[in-house]
Amino acid sequence: MEKNGIGTDASIPVHINNISERNYVQVNSGRRLVPTALGTTLIRGYQCIDADLCLPDIRSFIEQQITLIAKGKADHLQVIQHSLQQFMRKYSYFVKKIENMDTLFEAQFSPLADSGRLLSKCGKCGRYMKYISTQPMRMYCVTCEEVYYLPQNGSIKLYKEIICPLDGFELLLFSMVGPDAKSFPLCPCCYNSPPFEGIDKLFGALKLDDTGKVGKGAGMPCFLCPHPTCKQSMITQGVCACPECSGTLILDPVSAPKWRLLCNTCNCVVLLPHAAHRITTTDKKCPTCESTIIEVDFNKKATPLEDGATLHGGCILCDELLHSLVEMKHGKSFFM
């Protein structure tokens, strides 16, 4: 406090006594102040909403202004007016974001924190995060004391222990309910804080607030991610433009043996050949329509290829064989 120019010899002991009585810290041997779980969670909450509230800069600035007033170098009323306006703006912003604080305290101190099960690794600390299945579904890292919201009204499981190349979090697989419902992988961190600038302008489905974070149930799954090399992103799994909207048809990697393409914006579904043992995207583009060339490995007993061949690559729009084997669902037409 002395280093940052905060408080006086008379007020410093009062501050220490206050945070001790409020159970934010405990005084250990050697007169060392050790933060409690309550104090740590409180600071984490401030950092999530307004990091300035955790720093000594604001208080230090006011103390400097008071000194200038005492020396006759600053106007008393102007300093008061400026300070009140500053704190009023911060208070109004804090009230709008108070739900972030509630979420942290609920995850730390309610029975939900004990009932959550360990599911995937946090990319920040490397420890396992807890999956809290009650609404709203979310992941909670006990070590970092951070909450990551998930898509709602579906099931969540670990996705092949694949690591997100952007932040080191393990990917999760979200599955909606129903025979034709979508399933898609997502990174908990990217879903809550899209790492690419302008992502809200590229995809209108994202609901970002003033801090760049998404609201509950609206984020950036892997099928909206423009990462150029990640094997789960829209760039590598995208096949062609959706005929119903401005979205992209993405290969559903977990739809085997009923392979399909899903639009990352609307509910358009394209059923691929069910006789396929394996279907993958390639890094090649169709010279005619620039769609991604897919590689289909048919089952030996049901292959439509001549001489019993099983491997076939082509564009689902321009290749006659593949185009004849696809079926449109929840859409009007499917053409180049």
TrEMBL record:
Top-level division of the source organism's lineage: Eukaryota
GO terms assigned for molecular function: DNA binding; DNA topoisomerase type I (single strand cut, ATP-independent) activity
Pfam families: Topoisom_bac, Zn_ribbon_TOP3B
Signal peptide: none
EC code: 5.6.2.1
GO terms of biological process kind: DNA recombination; DNA repair; DNA topological change
Domain Topo IA-type catalytic: 1-91
Name by which UniProt lists this protein: DNA topoisomerase
Organism: Aegilops tauschii subsp. strangulata
